[in-house]
Amino acid sequence: MHSQNSSAPFLSLDPAIDRRPLTVSPDTSLSNAIARMSKAQSSCVLPGLELSLNTILMSEARASGILIVEGAQLLGVFAERDALQAIVSGRDLTAVTVADGVRRSVIALTQSEDQNAFTALSQLRQHRIHHLPVVDEHDQWLGIITPASLRNVLQLDELLKSKQLAEIVSSPVVQAPATTTVLELAQLMVDHEVDCVVLTAADEQNEPVGLILERHVLQLWALELDLSQIQAQAVMSAPFLHFASSELVLDAYWKMQQTKMQRFGVYGNEGDLLGVVSPTSFLETLDLSEMHSTVEQLQRSIEQFEISKSASAQHQRSELDLQLLENPVGLLEQLQCSQILAGMALHIRESLNLDSILQTAVEEVRQFLKTDRVIIYKFHPDWSGTTVVESVADGWRPALNSSVQDTCFGQNYAQAYKEGRTQVCEDIYTAGLTQCHIDILVIYDIRASLVVPILQGEHLWGLLCAYHCSGPRRWQSFEVELLKQLATHMAIAIQQSELYQQVQSELKERRRTEEQLKLSLKEKEALLKEIHHRVKNNLQVISSVLRLQSDYIKDERVLTLFKDSQNRIRSMALIHEKLHQSSNLLKINFDEYVRDLADNLLRSYAANSQAATLRTQAAGVRLNIDTAIPCGLIINELVSNALKHAFPTSTSDNEILVEISPASDNRFILTVRDNGIGFPLELDFRNTESLGLELVCIFTEQLEGTIGLDQAEGAGTTFTITFSELENTGKV
After folding, report:
1. Do 329-501 and 589-724 share a fold?
2. By the number of CB atoms within 10 A of the CB, which of 263, 305, 462, 477 ranks highest?
3. Residue 47: what pLDDT?
């Protein structure tokens, strides 16, 4: 039998007593009593309020039972099970008092120095109850003890992290189809003395899909709903959370809190449902002596740490100079701190590899502090977070990449850390931490912690945490200062890396955009080449049709008109052919174009081609398509005119020159000269019946140019056209 040492804080009865229980007088109707319980249940968790599971459990435990009192005298306890029995009985609950609704005798615990938390737990287990009133020596009620209140007092996480779920499963599992009515489920709970029913899908597999709890039935009844008409699937708690029986108890409890569920199923190795576990199930099943031994061992470790801390404090020197003279180790520690900080600053300047910088820092800090674990914890927008960097000694459970949805943090700690708070915790069990915080620390074997914020302006990026796992630890002031300065350096490194990543991301996006533009440009180039190819082919078809038609024309004048039209079409087709063949779709090599155009004209006027030599000069001249087409047509008309009229007799001296050269102000000069008989002096080339010369004037105006004629009888003809390159508008 375990000893009754009530002086230990973790065994004391007083913290386990809820001194604000619900109370009613004995003449209160069952209807009013159930309504009050339901109202208290509904107010346990307000919408949008993030509370820890332990806080919710305490509130729901208070709402799950009512003390029946008359003044200071305790008369009985009305619990959820009693309310459920009353509901399924079919009686008029407005006509029955709460005193008549409770048949069993009162089981209470008298508070005294001999009583502790385990005394209360033994009573709960012995009588299979969930509410234990506490009275004083005069039988006046003081409060009530529930499994939830004992869970908050008894620090058993060290035991729970070593136990498997298979060791705490005991209650029978009652299952029913999800289509069962709520009233039928209430009857099942009463018959089997359980506080919940597992609901299964209405199919051959009968997979669990949700739960109905006692409190759910009470809340629905209080709403004056007909429970016989409501199917469970409409109001059940879903989904059905479950774990394997080999899962550790503390891990399962933490995951349950993460999902904000209050029950979960336990499956055996064969896939069979062994039972349903609540956050306090272990209090009903684990060995009392083992639990008592765990609490006492924890208490001894706390006491031993306090003794060693007091002894250490007695040997401290009050003056810093004397301490440094008599303790050269202090100088060495300061030197090592400076080296770590200088090394990290150097890493930041020399490297943009954030992972390497942070990993090196936590490794060096852990070795310097001679502690078991150092991590960097990064927050997400919802205050959940992930361990992104870790250095951990051998033998301890790794936490790297583990994510935590801590409902306590945002409510209790976030603002303080934003303001630069540093948490120095020598022992998690004596630091006043919330139970949900203790649970997650114990999962990773943490007993003492030193935590500093990593801030970027007012933004809390994360935490730098040093953890001692082997026992409590007294953190030195220089250790705290080291972590603070390191957190500042890390914030700089993180900001620098994020900026670098942002720049790299922008460069990557720019390259991707450039590649897309290049691909789009290639596609457009291919399309333009195809268009030029098709236009050239269509123009050649038209030219061929004109040639075929000219074979049937006997009138020389009409035949000449057809031939002139063919040449004009060929001059335009040649433009598109050159663009199709060119790598530059914007500009045409006019030197090549003029040579090819001249050759085509000589072949076209084969009868006169022996009468003259045609020379071209346009080296280095490139024109866009809007300029090239009218310019080519002008050359076509002037050269054709010279071949037809300038040389009545054939001599070897006959010559036609086509020259284009750049002039000032981004202009060009086109010269078409022949040494033939000369342009008739009596003709005005601007006012003639010749279609060719009329077209020359029209295209010169289109090029926004000027045209001049140098004529002398018997001395040849020279046309000079000055023009500017048109903008590429595609209007030609």
Report:
1. no
2. 462
3. 44
The separation between CA 428 and the C-alpha centre of its own chain, rounded to angstroms, equals 33
Of 508, 565, 517, 564, the C-alpha closest to 542 is 565
User: In the prediction, which pLDDT does 108 show?
Assistant: 93
Instruction: Dump pLDDT digits (tens) for 77-111.
Output: 999 999 999 999 989 999 999 988 887 788 999 99
* Homologous superfamily (CATH) for 329-501: GAF domain (3.30.450.40)
C-alpha 4, offset from chain centre: 53
Q: Output 569 or 698, whichever has higher pLDDT.
A: 698
Helix, strand or coil, per DSSP, at residue 23? strand
- Say if residues 465 and 377 touch (Cβ distance below 8 Å): yes
DSSP code at position 166: G
Residue spans per domain, the chain: 14-154, 159-285, 329-501, 589-724
pLDDT score recorded for residue 630 = 83
Q: For residue 42, which of 173, 216, 289 has the smallest C-alpha distance?
A: 216
Please name the residue ranges forming H helices in 28-139: 30-42, 53-63, 80-89, 98-101, 117-127
**Backbone φ and ψ of 470, nearest 5°:** -80, -10
Whether residue 690 has pLDDT greater than 80: no
**514 membership: H or E segment, kind and range:** helix 477-550
Looking at residue 233, the DSSP 8-state letter turns out to be: G
Q: Taking 90 as the threshold, does the pLDDT of residue 21 lie above it? A: yes
Query: Which uninterrupted H or E stretch holds 667?
Result: strand 667-674
Measured CA to CA, the distance from residue 53 to residue 151 in angstroms comes to: 12
For residues 141 and 77, give the distance between their C-alpha atoms in angstroms, rounded to a whole number: 12
Burial of 614 by CB count in 10 Å (0-12 exposed, 13-18 middle, 19+ buried)?
buried
Work out whether strand 655-662 and strand 667-674 pair parallel, antiparallel, or are unpaired: antiparallel
DSSP reduced 3-state for 461? strand
Instruction: Give the C-alpha separation, 238 to 199, whole Å.
Output: 10
Question: Is-above-0.85 flag for pTM?
Answer: no
* Range 368-394 average pLDDT: 91
Distance from CA of residue 603 to its chain's centroid?
72
249 phi and psi, to 5 degrees?
A: -60, -50
Q: Rounded to whole angstroms, how far apart are CA atoms 16 and 225?
A: 36
The model's pLDDT over 591-643, given as tens digits with 9 standing for 90+, comes to 887 888 777 777 777 654 556 888 889 888 888 878 887 888 888 888 888 88
Place of tokens 């234990």: 132
Distance CA 498, CA 44 (A): 43
Please report, as a single letter, which amino acid is at residue 683.
L
Q: Please tell me the distance from the alpha carbon of residue 292 to that of residue 6, in angstroms, as a whole number.
A: 12
Residue 125 makes CB contacts below 8 A (sequence gap 6+) with 283, 284, 288
CATH superfamily of 159-285: CBS-domain (3.10.580.10)
Convert the pLDDT of each residue in 641-654 to its tens digit.
Answer: 888 888 888 787 88
Q: Which pLDDT value is given to residue 710? A: 87
Averaged pLDDT for residues 382-409: 86
| DSSP-derived secondary structure letter, 67 | E
Number of H-type helices and E-type strands within the chain:
23, 25
The two three-digit tokens of residue 430, written as one number: 């004596």
Q: By CB neighbour count within 10 A (0-12 exposed, 13-18 middle, 19+ buried), where does 21 fall?
A: buried
Predicted local confidence at residue 651, as pLDDT: 81
Tell me which architecture the domain covering 14-154 has in CATH.
Roll (3.10)
Whole-number Å distance between alpha carbons of 594 and 690: 23
